[in-house]
Design goal:
Strand content: 15-25%
Distance between the termini: 54 Å
CATH architecture of the largest domain: 2-Layer Sandwich
CATH class of the largest domain: Alpha Beta
CATH superfamily of the largest domain: Bira Bifunctional Protein, Domain 2
Number of helices: 15
Number of domains: 2
Bound molecules: histidyl-adenosine monophosphate
Largest sheet: 8 strands, mixed
């Protein structure tokens, strides 16, 4: 019996993988411009990190983690997201002591959530995310948002919607929390078991319930915006001012509740507005998490970041019909006629590649005509034809595939010649 790929995962094959590489390269380029440096953390962490960091009452921790016990009896979990791990590393490696503050980091890699697979929702997906730790300036919130928006725009996306909200500071959140409890308590029996549990532990999560989202009490629930204290309000206003100054369009949505518990103040999501994008429109999510470092045993450190998945990025590009140039032509295909020429081409190919020329040869004993067909398929700019006769005379025939022009080149000079015409 053949074995198939696990549900919710995918193979990314040549032809498609080039899109990933382009997005990844653009993300790295932007991080360089914005001065974010790469961090690589393990694929698995102690389970406690996520229960404490992401939050016990979240769907991620309650239902979606790939948790296992290792041979030493430790409970480990495949990371469902990147922020908790980055903050764990920040604390553990004492990055709060670095001379350069805030510490600006980015990551790219697979995350794992046991979710119900559907378009745009996978069990293994790749996130690109950034985290800025150590600053309480709303300007860095604006910077974080602008990096994500620029990345999408520079890849050609136009139909984007940025939604922002403020979840306020601790004091505002406690006031809002009490209002939520008063609002839902009298009729909590009409809600699912999860919501009933959430009422005491984390009533904000009720607003994020996938099962009861149509209940009439949801729409009339007290909004956090009305419970922001002066400081939180001022923070949120500054953020909006900076976004406007940066020419980044946004809408405020007081109902934006993120699926992770560590947020306060700024919360945001970027959605695709493209027609036919499908039910899941969120491309990117992020926000501020000033209490997270403390929660996992470090000093009080403000932080803000976002994460986006490459899967949804590509889905948005497809929905908007953005074509990425993914077929890079090769510089030279070496076609050979005869045994000696074929043997010689092994060394010649190596020479070309070492000289920075992308090159290929035949490995299937094809006839010369078939070799030219392959060269066509590879979009070779030049085909260098070598027969046993040419080999004896130290020459090679170089055909420009665009113009059809042919020249004879000294064989030992081929790589120099190609380098020259490449410029
Ligand atoms: P999140 O909203 O859980 O936030 O995920 C961020 C992004 O990851 C989503 O907007 C979506 O693009 C992508 N994503 C999430 N789940 C899936 C899935 N099952 N399949 C495909 N893509 C998915 C976080 O993970 C936070 N760590 C973001 C953050 C960073 N907040 C502050 N810093």
């Amino acid at each position: 019996m053949s074995i198939s790929i696990p549900r919710g995962t995918q193979d990314i094959l040549p032809g498609e993988v080039e899109k990933w590489q382009l997005i990844e390269a653009k993300a790295r380029e932007l991080c360089e411009k914005y001065q974010y440096q790469e961090i690589r953390t393990p694929i698995f962490e102690h389970t406690d990190l996520f229960s404490r960091g992401v939050g016990d009452t979240t769907d991620i921790v309650q239902k979606e983690m790939y948790t296992f016990t290792d041979r030493g009896g430790r409970s480990l979990t495949l990371r469902p997201e990147g922020t908790a791990a980055v903050v764990r590393s920040f604390v553990e490696k004492k990055m709060f002591g670095y001379a350069n503050q805030p510490v600006k980091l980015y990551y790219m890699g697979p995350m794992f959530r046991y979710e119900r697979p559907q378009a745009g929702r996978f069990r293994q997906f790749v996130q690109f995310g950034i985290e800025a730790l150590g600053s309480n300036d709303p300007a860095i919130d604006a910077e974080v948002i602008s990096l994500a928006m620029n990345l999408y725009k520079e890849m050609g996306l136009k139909k984007l919607k940025l939604v922002v909200n403020s979840l306020g500071d601790k004091e505002s959140r406690i006031a809002h929390r009490n209002a939520l409890v008063n609002h839902f308590q009298p009729r909590i029996g009409e809600f699912c078991q999860d919501c009933q549990n959430r009422l005491e532990k984390n009533p904000l999560r009720i607003l994020d319930c996938k099962q009861d989202h149509k209940h009439e009490l949801m729409a009339s629930a007290p909004s956090i915006i009305d419970y922001l204290n002066e400081e939180s309000k001022a923070y949120f206003e500054k953020l909006q001012k900076y976004l406007t100054q940066m020419d980044i369009a946004f809408v405020v949505d007081p109902n934006l509740v993120r699926g992770l518990d560590y947020y306060n103040h700024t919360a945001f999501e970027i959605m695709s507005d493209a027609e036919g994008f499908g039910a899941i429109t969120t491309l990117c999510g992020g926000g501020r998490y000033n209490g997270l470092a403390e929660e996992i045993g470090g000093p009080q450190t403000p932080g803000i970041g976002f994460a986006l998945s490459i899967e949804r990025f590509i889905a948005a590009l497809n929905a908007e019909g953005v074509e990425l140039t993914i077929h890079q032509p090769i510089d030279c295909y070496i076609a050979t006629l005869g045994e000696e020429a074929k043997d010689y081409s092994v060394g010649l190919l190596q020479q070309l590649r070492l000289a920075g020329i992308s090159a290929e040869r035949d490995y299937l004993n094809r006839k010369i005509k078939a070799q030219f067909k392959v060269a066509d398929r590879l979009k070779a700019r030049y085909v260098a034809v070598l027969g046993d006769e040419e080999l004896k005379n130290n020459i090679i025939n170089l055909k420009n595939m665009e113009t059809g022009d042919q020249v004879e080149v000294e064989l030992t000079n081929l790589s120099n010649h190609l380098q020259e015409i490449k410029g």
